Amino acid sequence: MFFKSSKINEFRLWGLLFTLFGMGLMILGTSGIVFWGQAGKWFAGVFMVIGMIAMLLSVGVYFWAGMLSTSAVILICPECNRHTKILGKTDRCMYCKTKLTLDPNEATDLDEGITEKA
Predict the structure, then answer these.
(1) CA gyration radius, the chain
(2) pLDDT in tens, 73-107
(3) Computed from CA positions of residues 68, 1, 18, 54, in that sequence, does the dihedral angle turn out positive or negative?
(4) Cα–Cα distance, 89 to 58 (Å, whole number)
């Protein structure tokens, strides 16, 4: 994972970034009309189409994150005691960013590490 957050929240973050990128491109495109007049219409048209494609990508990412969210396993985080969703075998808590796993082979127990050092 890239940002050390839950996988569902990362998908939503990418959807938000695509939305902001698409809107920024569309605003940049309309500035072509303001600054160049008639010649800026082509500039505006191109940037409007690219911005629209980025907005459609964001809709796709949000839809994909929503579909993944409906099939995610819900469990209670041992750190913050809140319900969180987990995708795959390992994920992070959506609230406190604690590493969670459903695979007992990948789980670590902090108490065992303390007793081994002592």
Answers:
(1) 22
(2) 999 998 899 999 998 888 898 899 888 888 877 77
(3) negative
(4) 26
